[in-house]
Amino acid sequence: MRKQHYKIPFTGLKLGVHDFSFKVTETFFESDDYLEIEKANCHINLTLEKQSTMLVLTFDISGLVTVPCDRCSYPTEVEVEGSYGLIAKFSEVELQNTEEIIYLPPSEYEIDIREFVYEFIQLSLPVKKMHPEGACNQDVIENLDNYLITENQSEKDSEENSSVDPRWAALNKLKKKN
Fold first, then answer.
1. Interval 161-176: pLDDT, tens
2. Do 30 and 85 have their domain in common?
3. What predicted TM-score, i.e. pTM, was given to this entire model?
4. Which residue of 74, 112, 161, 177 shows the fewest CB atoms closer than 10 Å?
């Protein structure tokens, strides 16, 4: 997507509420090398309330993105959904932006929401991004199982180590008491 597409000229807008709609696809993520998201089909509904000293923006995000599975690293489709707010205040003094408030000089005539769209989509991703149970690439899962250390294997390795090196015997006795 063109970067210009995400710039909203607000100087020509009247005071009050204005609605904007954006479609975000994988081209949005390709242009800036966002590696995690491979495909996307998201809708952004932006409500911009123009006031005399600030802009109040509300982003409603919904859609699907394709990301690597946390379990097998093969692509999986996950749902993203969320509502996020942002306030853009006008200030002649250069102030530090926060998570919810950004500061714009009074001479500014447009706001670029591209970076906010990216951040809010990232925030909308689920904590665990995995295929449904049983849908992971089975070759990868089988290889992972070969390297998985079970509790029994860990105890067996611990016993072998203690019999090989008697210097650790006293510490192992303390460990077994707890």
1. 545 577 777 777 776 6
2. yes
3. 0.74
4. 177
